[in-house]
């Protein structure tokens, strides 16, 4: 079977790359190639979300048709279903954010297949992992050391732990330096993938600001999914514009081992902790 491209109708390349990447995930693709896997799923009367399942299945069959004589197929029907089911949040004529689309699409497919928080589908069977999130509130910075000490003794400022599931992991980039070389060119920094994965080692703490309060958080992986999606966060929104971090992330394309990010008890439950790259989505050009 050959790999086939998707037409860019107007400004739908952000969705095309996600659909193409998902078509490279064998268990997901194989499930949707066979219509009998989902034909009998009961949906409430008037439910339009199942249209996503049908159209995604059709697209997988088009992409993987051995009798294709064209080098590309049109995702038009699939994208019309996306526009309808997302209530125009995602459109064909307007650029969108690939990771927003990925998140919405996977969750929408999961629900349309009859899934819930407790009921599994092919979506969470393939992509869902879990983690513990440790969070502690920070005292306001304008207090004296004594006042801060007192607050840290109270219940409100004690560390809390919550269990959470994920369909992808968000990796943060270090702030890009503003150094220039002798030719006044901005130096583009490079970072190994394993440096930014340290966010999930259960030890690394990072400060998160909300409108009124600041928190220190750390993350500990408790279950790895069969297929792992990384989202490298390049864009930050300021009041007036969107900035893109140009940092280059160096990563191996085979044998990425996540064992060291798991506690010993979690390691014991995971026979396989290595991953090979099967798809990579890159944003080209300026932000926006």
From TrEMBL:
Catalytically driven reaction(s): Thiol-dependent hydrolysis of ester, thioester, amide, peptide and isopeptide bonds formed by the C-terminal Gly of ubiquitin (a 76-residue protein attached to proteins as an intracellular targeting signal)
Domain USP: 4-288
Highest taxon above the source species: Eukaryota
Pfam families: UCH (PF00443)
Enzyme Commission number(s) of this protein: 3.4.19.12
GO BP terms, alphabetized: protein deubiquitination
InterPro entries for the chain: Papain-like_cys_pep_sf, Peptidase_C19_UCH, Ub_carboxyl-term_hydrolase, USP
GO molecular function: cysteine-type deubiquitinase activity
Keyword annotations: Hydrolase
Keyword flag Acetylation: no
Protein's recorded name: ubiquitinyl hydrolase 1
Organism: Callorhinchus milii (Ghost shark)
